[in-house]
Design brief:
Blueprint (H helix, E strand, L loop, with lengths): L1 H16 L2 H9 L14 H8 L2 H9 L14 H8 L2 H9 L14 H8 L2 H9 L14 H8 L2 H9 L14 H8 L2 H9 L14 H7 L3 H9 L14 H8 L2 H9 L14 H8 L2 H9 L14 H8 L2 H9 L14 H8 L2 H9 L14 H8 L2 H9 L14 H8 L2 H9 L14 H8 L2 H9 L14 H8 L2 H9 L14 H8 L2 H9 L14 H8 L2 H9 L14 H8 L3 H8 L10 H12 L3 H4 L3 H15 L6 H12 L14 H7 L4 H6 L21 H9 L14 H8 L2 H9 L14 H8 L2 H9 L14 H8 L2 H9 L14 H8 L2 H9 L14 H7 L3 H9 L14 H8 L2 H9 L14 H8 L2 H9 L14 H7 L3 H9 L71 H6 L34
Helix pairs in contact: 1-2, 1-3, 3-4, 3-5, 5-6, 5-7, 6-8, 7-8, 7-9, 9-10, 9-11, 10-12, 11-12, 11-13, 13-14, 13-15, 14-16, 15-16, 15-17, 16-18, 17-18, 17-19, 18-20, 19-20, 19-21, 21-22, 21-23, 22-24, 23-24, 23-25, 25-26, 25-27, 26-28, 27-28, 27-29, 29-30, 29-31, 30-32, 31-32, 31-33, ...
């Protein structure tokens, strides 16, 4: 067998290399000429692929099977036609090769020849009665493919032989559409002469004219218009040719369309008119043409936005002037009440603002949130615009809905120069917003010492209080702004002022843990033992937070170590709750004032025992603190017996501690003991309630992987289906941890197998996500819902594919998991596996007929994901399963573009070898070459140029690959492009915004050899919500300054840094760099654990 395999490979390789002598010798040795190698490939396939005519003749003479098929059902004739070997094709036809045989994709030899563009082979095949209108699986015909590829001679031969000129593929695309997308005017003319339906529509209702306008093929547009194409035809989004041309800024096409009676104010689905689109894109000449043709200058979209607003957002002063000359309504408002002036101020377009003011724009106009241009400019720090507005008599203390003044906003944002200008122009330094917050408070929260000094020099009231009685000093101490605190103290701020909860600046600093501020406050005579409304002192708060240095400073300054709050909590108890080392300091200082001997850790235990003697009488949290303390000590325990800890346990039980007493934010004694396996039985024997609920149920022992604990709890009739506040059950926890024994036990006690948590996750999803094969099997055998999805549509199969566990994937498919199910973003299991690079999983899915060309909501396919993430093996596999190689996402990017941008040269080569379109363009007009040049991938650039990539194609803003390379200073690429005839021209080095890419990296996060490329090159959803084509000025709300409560009840929020004065928010604009996120601090009463 080994020798046979060896000869088999030798024979196939010899045929492939054209080694006639070796082939003859093997045939003389009676070798089977039809034997197949890897992938079902024979010697004849190899010889036809490489054009070795002598080998082909030799094999035919030795009775080779002329129509033998490989693993993809390719016959030798199909291969020879695809490769363009004319003489080989002729010999095969002369020996009666089946001219109409098809491969797995339904592609014929004629289709292969048409794709290849070999007119001689096409003629041979037609003479042998090749079916001229045969269709592959995507319903592509030979003519469709030839038109798409731009092979003029082949198209003429097909038309002369009466090919169906109006045949459509499965997407409804015709040969004329393919030629228009390709921009081949000769083919377009030939098709029209043969009565191609000029206004035929595809499934997206695009016509040939719409596609030609989208692709900017001026000559083709002219031909179509001369042949009476419907100039006002709309696609399914009501987008017309004029919309397309205006978006792309193609002046000549716009002129042609207008001359041919295009409806100039025509609207799309969002009521966008061509003028709105042109203005938002900044195409000055296009706007001029439209204005000259009496376009409605005040047309609005669904959001009420006008062309003037679009131009102001874009910052194009020329367009703004042109619109105003044509009587654009300068103070028109959109649905949010924004005007062109407000938007220009928001974006910081100084020149535009000046033009608007010169044309009498209302300088004090407000939107529906009472926000004006000055608010916007102050929020964003546009200093020159602020000056311009002041010169134009803007109301300096104008207020919004929350009574915010421009000064308060500028201070909160830390814009020093803006603050200075406002103060010089007599802005009200002590103005307050609805919550009583002042500019000084905003500056203190922001931590800007320069602004604080400016305000104090202008006599800002240093001890002013907001509605919660917070002062500037209280806020600065909470935020930990040392420099600001020092300035306030130097200016005699009241160091002992309290807010409505009785909290002082010292308490805020102690909660924050800032020992420098604590020291500064104490030096200024801060009352060290002051108490808030809960009776807590600075020392208690510092102990609660575990700030050792602060505790040390307070003790050194004679803080009362035995002071207790209203609920009986002392500093010692607060420290115990958080189980920190502050206990050491407290124990050391407890008797320091009477100079008694420090007995250290030994006395600490006795003190704890005494403190916990009557748990319920003193503090409901102390027993819980004890349980937590026990847990920590138990984990640190050595093999030696710890008598003190035993005494603590006895004390807890003998004093009838309510083991189920719980606090909303603390675990019960039983729950803590569940983690410490040794104490469970004791607690249960003292009748602890096994069904107690909290953040972790008793059966959360499942999460800790304690089989014995689970058995004990089940024996005491624990509720097997108890859930946490997040909806998690014991079965979910055990499935996540991977303990199959616990899973089996829980199922025997009737655990709900398909219970869902708050995110709709099931136990099966958890097990699949973590790769626990055995548990997945158990759950499936117990009829778990294999197709359940979480709130985002994510299934167990998707989780397994992300994880890359092929065994689990196979098991799920055996239990009828829906292989092509989509999550809320349109992602499938195959996409997940392709994105993560799990080859074995991908193969399993493909073998189970997963749809390879399905796309996400953003048009991303599995091939794009694999190409983006550099998984070359998967790219090959997908192509073998007929992945559409030139499919485009909503941004117009293809798999090859993604690979070019990421620098995956091996994948780019695979795609190019599989006939990927090298010069296809995305919505920015960028090609793979431009992307690779911009990103500095010289090997990719070299490869693309070797495959005839056009180095002089321009993006929609006019940039070429060479310009992009120069912008990023990729001089090696510049040299390479120049050697390939790239045209050198002037460019601006500062144009760093000329990024040719359109797709967000998030589009490519999880989430072919076919002879049938998709002709759907135009972006169907254009223009979409991701572009600025839709002028939708969004809500711009400036939130009021939120007061801060520095008290014990808010300790948790202080620690997390959640409580602060809300920065004023001017908008929620589409642009990421202007997106001012809200961070409302909710004052939830979590209570402090003592």
């Amino acid at each position: 067998m080994g020798n046979l395999m060896s000869k088999e490979h030798i024979f196939v390789a010899a045929c492939g290399h054209g080694d006639r002598r070796r082939v003859r010798n093997l045939i003389r040795d009676k070798f089977d000429v039809n034997i197949k190698g890897f992938g079902g490939i024979t010697g004849l396939h190899m010889a036809c692929h490489n054009g070795h005519i002598d080998i082909v003749k030799e094999l035919i003479q030795n009775k080779v099977e002329i129509d033998i098929r490989d693993g993809n059902d390719q016959t030798p004739l199909i291969i020879a036609c695809f490769q363009g070997h004319e003489q080989v094709v002729k010999i095969l036809l002369e020996n009666d090769a089946d001219v109409n045989a098809t491969n797995k994709n339904g592609a014929t030899a004629l289709m292969g020849a048409c794709l290849n563009g070999n007119s001689i082979i096409v003629s041979y095949l037609l003479q042998r009665h090749a079916q001229i209108d045969a269709k592959d699986k995507d319903e592509q015909t030979a003519l469709l493919l030839a038109c798409h590829e731009g092979h003029e001679k082949v198209v003429n031969i097909l038309l002369e032989n009466n090919a169906d000129v109006n045949a459509k593929n499965k997407n409804g695309a015709t040969a004329l559409m393919g030629a228009c997308l390709n921009g081949n005017s000769i083919i377009v003319s030939a098709l029209l002469q043969c009565h191609a339906q000029i206004d035929a529509k595809d499934k997206d209702e695009d016509t040939a004219l719409i596609l030609a306008c989208h692709k900017r093929h001026e000559k083709v547009v002219k031909i179509l218009l001369e042949n009476n194409a419907d100039v006002n035809a709309k696609n399914k989004n009501c987008i017309t040719c004029l919309h397309m041309a205006c978006h792309n800024g193609h002046i000549d096409i716009v002129e042609q369309l207008v001359q041919n009676k295009a409806e100039i104010d025509i609207r799309d689905d969002d009521d966008q008119a061509p003028l709105l689109i042109a203005c938002s894109q900044g195409h000055e000449k296009v706007v001029k043409i439209l204005l000259e043709n009496n376009v409605d200058v005040n047309v609005t979209n669904k959001k009420g936005a006008t062309a003037l607003m679009g131009a102001c957002l874009n910052g194009n002063s020329t367009i703004v002037s042109d619109l105003l000359q044509c009587h654009a309504q300068i103070d028109a408002k959109d649905k949010d009440g924004d005007t062109a002036f407000i938007l220009a101020c928001h974006k910081g377009h100084e020149k535009v603002v000046k033009i608007l003011l010169e044309n009498n724009a209302d300088v004090n106009v407000k939107n529906r949130n009472c926000i004006g241009g000055l608010h916007m400019a102050c929020h964003n720090g546009h200093i020159d615009i602020v000056k311009e507005l002041i010169q134009n008599k803007v109301e300096i203390d104008i207020r919004d809905d929350d009574d915010q003044t421009p000064l308060i906003i500028a201070c909160s944002q830390g814009h020093e120069k803006v603050v200075n200008i406002l103060l010089e122009n007599n802005a009200g330094v002590n103005a307050t917003n609805k919550n009583g917050a002042t500019a000084l408070m905003g500056a203190c929260l922001n931590g800007n010492s320069i602004i604080v000094s400016y305000l104090l020099q202008r006599h800002a009231q240093i001890d002013a209080k907001d509605k919660d009685e917070q002062t500037a000093l209280l806020l600065a101490c909470h935020e930990g702004n040392e420099k600001v605190v020092n300035i306030l103290l130097e200016n005699n701020a009241d160091v002992n002022a309290t807010n409505k909860n009785g909290a002082t600046a010292l308490m805020g600093a102690c909660l924050n843990g800032n020992n420098i501020i604590v020291s500064a406050l104490l030096q200024c005579h801060a009352q060290i033992d002051a108490k808030d409304k809960d009776g807590d002192t600075a020392l208690i708060l510092a102990c609660h937070k575990g700030h050792e240095k602060v505790v040390r400073i307070l003790l050194e300054n004679n803080a009362d170590v035995n002071a207790a709050g209203k609920k009986g909590a002392t500093a010692l108890i607060a420290a115990c709750v958080n189980r920190n080392r502050v206990i050491d300091f407290l124990q050391h200082h407890a008797q320091a004032r009477t100079k008694e001997k420090d007995e250290g850790q030994e006395n600490m235990i006795k003190t704890l025992l005494k403190s916990f003697a009557d748990v319920n009488a003193r503090n409901q949290n102390v027993g819980i603190a004890l349980a937590d303390f026990l847990h920590d000590q138990a984990q640190a325990r050595t093999k030696e017996k710890d008598e003190d800890l035993e005494n603590l346990i006895e004390n807890l039980l003998e004093n009838n501690t309510d083991n189920n007493e719980r606090n909303k934010s603390v675990v019960t004694a039983l729950m803590a003991a569940c983690i410490n396996e040794n104490n469970v039985s004791d607690l249960l024997q003292h009748q602890a309630q096994t069904g107690a609920k909290d953040e972790d149920a008793p059966l959360a022992a499942s999460h800790e992987d304690h089989e014995n604990i689970v058995k004990i709890l089940l024996a005491y009739n624990a509720n097997v289906n108890d859930i946490t506040k997040d909806g998690v059950t014991a079965l979910m926890a055990a499935s996540w941890q991977g303990n199959d024994t616990i899973v089996s036990d829980l199922l025997q006690y009737h655990a709900h197998i398909d219970a869902k948590d708050k995110d709709d996750q099931t136990a099966l999803m958890a097990a699949c996500s973590e790769g626990h094969k055995k548990i997945v099997k158990i759950l499936l055998q117990n009829n778990s819902d294999v197709n359940a999805t979480n709130k985002k549509g994510f299934s167990a199969l998707m989780a397994a594919c992300v994880n890359g566990n092929s065994v689990i994937v196979s098991d799920l498919l055996q239990y009828h998991a829906q292989i092509d199910a989509k999550d809320d973003d349109g992602q499938t299991a195959l996409m997940a596996a392709c994105s993560e690079g799990h080859v074995k999983v991908v193969n399993i899915l493909l073998e189970h007929d997963a749809k390879v060309n399905v796309s996400t909501r953003k048009g991303v396919t599995a091939l794009m994901l694999a190409s983006t993430n550099g998984h070359d093996i998967i790219v090959n596999d997908l192509l073998e399963y007929n992945a559409q190689i030139d499919a485009q996402n909503v941004a117009g990017d293809t798999a090859m573009m993604s690979a070019c941008q990421k620098g995956h040269v091996d994948i780019v080569k695979i795609l190019l070898d599989s006939k990927a379109s090298v010069n296809i363009r995305n919505r920015q007009g960028s090609t793979g070459l431009m992307l690779a040049s911009y990103c500095g991938h010289i090997d990719v650039v070299r490869l693309l140029l070797d495959h005839k990539a056009d180095a002089n194609i321009r993006g929609i803003t006019g940039e070429t690959a060479l310009v992009l390379a120069l912008i990023k200073e990729h001089y090696g690429i510049e040299k390479l492009l120049t050697e390939h005839d790239a045209k050198k021209e002037n460019y601006r080095h500062s144009n760093s915004n000329m990024d040719p890419s359109t797709s967000d990296d998030n589009d490519f996060k999880f989430p072919s050899s076919s002879a049938a490329p998709d002709l759907k090159g135009a972006t169907r959803s254009f223009p979409d919500e991701s572009t600025e084509t839709k002028l939708m000025p969004v809500e711009r709300t400036i939130n009021s300054t939120t007061p801060v409560n520095i008290n014990l009840e808010m300790a948790k929020h202080f620690a997390m840094g959640n409580i602060h004065i809300q920065n004023p928010q001017c908008d929620d604009d589409d642009d990421d760099d202007d997106d001012l996120q809200e961070n409302d601090a909710e004052s939830t009463d979590d209570g402090v654990k003592k």
